[in-house]
Request: fold
Amino acid sequence: MNRARLSFAATLVALTLGAGLSAAQATQAPPMKSVLAGKKLTPPARGEVIVEYTLPTRKRVNDTIVTTFQVKNIGLAPIARLTIIQTWFDKANNTVGGGKGAVEGLFQPGEVKTITIESEAKPIYNGDGFNFTHANGTVRAKQVSKLVPGTAAEKPAAAAKPAAATAKPAAAAAKK
Reply:
C-alpha cells in the first residue's frame, strides 16, 4: 500500500514539474496585424446598378460562337460578380441554347472590362439576348457606341466645367 502511494505521489510530482517547465518554455506569438490596416474598403453595391456596354461582336470558331464586348461600371460603388447570360432563340422564339460570362472579383467604378461568352454553334440559332445580373441585385445595362475608361467621380466634375466657363463671359460682359 505504501508503494502504491509513493508511486502515485512520484507520478504527480513529475507531471507537475513537467507542466511547469513546458509552460515556462512557451513563447508569446507576435501581435496580429490587420490585413486591412490603413486601407479604404468600399463595400460592393446593393440593389440596382448601372453599367454601359458596347455592341457585341460575334465570331465563329469551329463549333463555338464567341461573343465579345466591353462593359464599364459607371456607378460610384464596386459591383460584385457581374454576370452576363446570353440566351439563343430559334425562329419560333423558343430558347435553344446559351452561355455565360462574368467579371471575376469586384468591378471597380470607372473600370472597363472585356467579357467573352462562348456557346455551342447550332444551325437553328436565329437571335440572342443578354441578361445582366450581379451578386447583390439587378443591373440596368445601357448600350453605347464607345467606352472611355475613367472613374465615375470624373463625370460630375466634367459637367461642372462648362457651367464655370459660361459664368466667365457673363462676368466679363458686366465689366464693360
In short: The helical segments are 2-25, 154-175. The longest strand covers residues 64-73.
